[in-house]
Design goal:
alpha/beta, Dihydrodipicolinate Reductase, domain 2, seven-stranded parallel β-sheet, seven-stranded mixed β-sheet, globular
Length: about 350
């Protein structure tokens, strides 16, 4: 097949730069163009010097990138993707939106949580939620993928087998999650300033994080019934990685060994999800700079509670890596193409 021409809008951000790094190693993709309002007219490598000689493309206007590309990755804050997606689809292009605009099917909930009005509801009907392990078949057929949020990716992959098999109660889930500071984006803020974050560790947006409705909506898809979660995110003083610990009351009397087998069978053919053995627990250092998700589990018999621990790299499986995984599915390529990265061993 001919090379796929990919464009990246918002390429100067963390997710955009991570996409460029992955796409440079993809044997079926050429980078057709990149855009950035902030750095228009400058070269990509002048913003990210590590790319000097590897990718020196110049930041253009979004419309120029769209015109040259077969598939467009949009890496912009919420509320900024709809007009661009409409333009892309009207021109017969494929789109993977790495932002939040198309992740929620309930548009009333989206408008309430994101305080943003939906202008093209018909586009949202076309969008497929891009958690690859959940919607692989639908992703193959769509031209618009809504790439999941980073926290939801780690949490939903951890819960999917348990929810789909009716093993747990989904009306009282407790989720304690920690993310590296790149999850907050490239823009500077007091909360992510080195002097504030280094040697510090704090929770934020307790009960009000915008990933809550995304997680609850997809859990309902997985289990066929309404779900509710108590979600407490934290910022770790590390660059990248997410560790999510989930506490779920058991619906059945299943033992840890039974659930272990269910999880191992469920993800047997999922190339990027690894279920740890009994008594083994994931570590974010084992997945950094890779598209892997590692899951560990046990049953606390005293409280009849399933405890799950899931780790991903928020820039890879939580964003750019999963986006490329979805590109591979959309074009019928091997799902692992361009994503054979292994976490550094030290």
């Amino acid at each position: 097949m001919s090379m796929i021409q990919a464009g990246v809008i918002g390429a100067s951000g963390y997710v955009g730069s991570e996409l460029i790094k992955i796409l440079l190693g993809h044997s079926h993709v050429d980078i057709a163009g990149v855009s950035s309002d902030t750095y228009a007219g400058q070269s990509f490598s002048s913003v990210y010097p590590t790319f000097k000689g590897q990718f020196d493309g110049v930041f253009e206007q979004a419309e120029q990138v769209i015109a040259k590309a077969d598939i467009i990755f949009i890496c912009l804050p919420h509320g900024m993707s709809e007009d661009l997606v409409k333009q892309c689809l009207d021109l017969g292009k494929k789109v993977i939106d790495a932002g939040a605009d198309f992740r929620l099917q309930d548009l009333t909930v989206y408008e309430d949580w994101y305080k943003t009005a939906v202008r093209y509801p018909e586009l949202h009907e076309q969008a497929v939620y891009g958690l690859t392990e959940l919607n692989r078949e639908k992703i193959q057929e769509t031209d618009l993928v809504a790439n999941p949020g980073c926290y939801p990716t780690s949490i939903l992959l951890a819960l999917y087998p348990a929810v789909a098999n009716g093993l747990i109660k989904t009306d009282s889930l407790i989720i304690d999650a920690k993310s590296g500071v790149t999850g907050a984006g490239k823009s500077l803020s007091e909360a992510t300033h080195f002097a504030t974050k280094n040697e510090g560790f704090a929770a934020y947006k307790i009960g009000s994080h915008r990933h809550i409705p995304e997680i609850e909506e997809q859990l309902a898809v997985m289990g066929g019934q309404k779900s509710s979660i108590a979600f407490v995110p934290h910022l770790l003083p590390v660059n990248r990685g997410i560790l999510a610990t989930v506490y779920a009351d058991l619906q059945t009397d299943a033992q840890a060994t039974d659930i272990q087998t269910i999880y191992e069978d469920w993800y047997e053919d999922a190339p990027f999800v690894q279920v740890k053995g009994p008594g083994q627990w994931p570590d974010i250092s084992h997945v950094q700079h890779s598209n892997q998700c590692h899951i560990g589990l046990t049953v606390d018999e005293r409280t009849s509670r399933l405890i799950l621990v899931s780790v991903i790299d928020n820039m890879q499986k939580g964003a750019a890596g999963q986006a490329v995984q979805n590109l591979n599915v959309m074009y019928g390529l091997t799902e692992t193409e361009g994503l054979a990265m292994v976490a550094p061993s030290f």
